[in-house]
Design goal:
The structure is a homodimer of 117-residue chains. Chain A is mainly α and 117 residues long. The first copy, chain A, has one domain: Arc Repressor Mutant, subunit A (Orthogonal Bundle), CATH 1.10.10.10. Chain A is built from 6 helices and 3 strands. In chain A, strands 1-3-2 form a 3-stranded antiparallel beta sheet. At the A-B interface, helix 1, helix 2, helix 3 and helix 6 of A face helix 1, helix 2, helix 3 and helix 6 of B. Chain B binds a DNA duplex (30 and 30 nucleotides) through helix 5.
Chain lengths: 117, 117
DNA sequence: TGCATTTATGTGCATTAACGTATATATATG
DNA sequence: CATATATATACGTTAATGCACATAAATGCA
């Protein structure tokens, strides 16, 4: 068993740790934010006022959630006049999820094939 | 535009909300727990004592984290004598991630194709 | 221009939840 | 009955959430 093999396994595992972005997961761990995601998927781009009207929380609270979701790469925003419009950050969001899934898959297969029996 | 189509979109979005299990995401949003996951992937099945020796936290804290990870379906545990062994819940863990990714993909494509341009 | 209105964000506060440390308890072993 | 392993509990600290209000920025109208 060469050092290369061990190095390789460690590197794969460390890439997994990098991929599992804690901010990203924390953002999706809050039910209110998932509801916001659902709303935007069903209704498309909307400003904060409109989104907040469809949530039980106050507009200021919704604003904070939207900002967090944007920082996590789940949403994008554009300011127009005095309105701030948010929308789902479609492709990058999907790609991030796929990337995480693939990295964990790879780590499973190459680092601990035993645990998948 | 029939009611069926709207219903269908709503149903797809609701399945997405169900899939984005907040407990699962919250569990993976804690860096310590990702480190535990990494350790188990690289070193395989281990008891709490051994895992805790490789983490900065106290054994009681590690025990709590391991319990949460098991409840979230990420790990499995088996009691042997006075030792509690934990291991990665390989296939189900992967399947859960793939399921979430696929549901979000589907929702993107069928609910808001515009947001993926 | 001046001022009220609308939209969004910032701030202070209380409440709740999570984490870590330390200690105590439970369970099994020798 | 002492020891080893794991879990439960109490406590302090920190962070997140929601509410209410204050501020900022843009708009509309007199």
């Amino acid at each position: 068993m060469g050092t290369e093999k061990t190095q390789s396994r460690t590197q794969i595992a460390e890439k997994l740790v990098e991929a599992v972005d804690s901010k990203f997961f924390k953002t999706l761990s809050e039910p209110v934010r998932v509801q916001i995601l659902k709303y935007l998927m069903l209704n498309g781009r909307a400003d904060i006022q409109t989104i907040a009207e469809n949530m039980p929380q106050d507009r200021s609270v919704v604003s904070r959630h939207l900002n967090l979701m944007q920082e996590a790469g789940i949403l994008v925003c554009q300011k127009e006049n005095r309105h701030m419009f948010y929308d789902v950050n479609g492709q990058p969001f999907i790609e991030k999820l796929v990337d995480i899934t693939e990295k964990i898959k790879k780590c499973m297969n190459e680092c601990c094939p035993d645990c998948c029996k």
